[in-house]
Amino acid sequence: MKTIEVDGIKVRIQIWDTAGQERYQTITKQYYRRAQGIFLVYDISSERSYQHIMKWVSDVDEYAPEGVQKILIGNKADEEQKRQVGREQGQQLAKEYGMDFYETSACTNLNIKESFTRLTELVLQAHRKELDGLRTRA
């Protein structure tokens, strides 16, 4: 659990990292059902991990609640010399799926806070719209 403050609101987030491992697939589908925000992460030094994103998006669309917020992440941005997936490829894929896009590095903390803050903002915005819709119907 981690707490992030966004617009003066403290939000507690729970992170589930499956590292793309198929053995977690059954459990992952159960977590999708309760998810409000999802990072879809690939390794910029692995074309194979990038290609798997389409399957993960398909799973999210099938199992996650409608309106779940998603952000595409190209991780390991500190390994530029090993890059197999261009930044433009990530940006284009994110655009196709209507997601924000960040390149991050867990080693250097590049865009880590920014991406978590943005996903939290998107989730809060979605909840505000949902609450506003309920208020107007009442």
From TrEMBL:
* Top-level division of the source organism's lineage: Eukaryota
Give EC number(s), comma-separated: 3.6.5.2
Any GO MF annotation of the entry = GTP binding
Q: Does the keyword DNA-binding apply?
A: no
Q: Which GO terms describe its cellular component?
A: endomembrane system; membrane
Localization in the cell: Membrane
| Major location category of this protein | membrane
The topology of this chain with respect to the membrane is: Lipid-anchor
Keyword field = GTP-binding, Hydrolase, Lipoprotein, Membrane, Nucleotide-binding, Prenylation
* Enzymatic class: hydrolase
Q: Which reaction does it catalyse?
A: GTP + H2O = GDP + phosphate + H(+)
Query: Which family does the record assign?
Result: Belongs to the small GTPase superfamily. Rab family.
Protein known as: small monomeric GTPase
Organism of this sequence: Mus musculus (Mouse)
